[in-house]
Design a protein that fits this description.
Blueprint: H1 3-13, H2 21-47, E1 56-57, E2 60-61, H3 62-66, E3 72-73, E4 76-77, H4 78-92, H5 95-98, H6 103-131, H7 136-159
Antiparallel strand pairs: 1-2, 3-4
Helix pairs in contact: 2-4, 2-7, 6-7
């Protein structure tokens, strides 16, 4: 058996523990809020930053942030990346997805939100240290992502416990 097939067998054999209702509801609502703000930022990216209802003087300047070179990552607008992330998070944080018995979905949820928070930290650093301006809508997305990180990491240890194997010949003790 190859290492990849061992990992697939391991993940498919594990059964996730049910998540508490507060985590299911809050993660779904947070994902919908993040999606809404991401849609607005994506529209502003393509229609022009002038449609942003945000100050353009002082430290808060959405136009300066959303039109900066840092508003692209590997040639892709950050607004599109945020939109794609939150479309995926709405699906993966839906009540139906939380009820999934396959552990791989719950591991993916945790990995995605941890990765997104890492990206958010880079974006906040770019706003503060390179652009020298802050976008309130971007900050809203950052706060929502941080809140999702808190919710998912509070649930993940219990949901992804080692003793949550589905019975099979490898996990049954004679």
């Amino acid at each position: 058996m190859t290492r990849g097939s061992e990992l697939n067998a391991f993940l498919s054999r594990r059964v996730a523990q049910p998540a508490p209702t507060w985590a299911v509801v809050s993660s779904f609502v947070l994902s919908l809020v993040g999606l809404g703000v991401s849609i607005y930022l994506t529209i502003a990216h393509f229609a022009g930053a002038q449609i942003l209802a945000c100050s353009s003087t002082g430290a808060i300047d959405c136009r300066a942030v959303t039109t900066s070179p840092q508003s692209y990552f590997l040639g892709v607008p950050v607004a599109i990346l945020g939109l794609a992330f939150y479309v995926l998070m709405v699906a993966i944080n839906s009540p139906w997805a939380w009820r999934a018995t396959r552990n791989a979905l719950h591991v993916a949820r945790l990995a995605l939100v941890v990765g997104a928070m890492g990206f958010v930290l880079w974006l906040v650093g770019a706003e503060l240290l390179i652009i020298n301006h802050i976008c309130l809508y971007c900050t809203g997305v950052h706060v929502v992502t941080f809140a999702l990180l808190i919710v998912v990491t509070r649930v993940a240890p219990k949901q992804l416990t080692r003793n949550a194997f589905a019975p099979d010949e490898e996990s049954v003790v004679n």
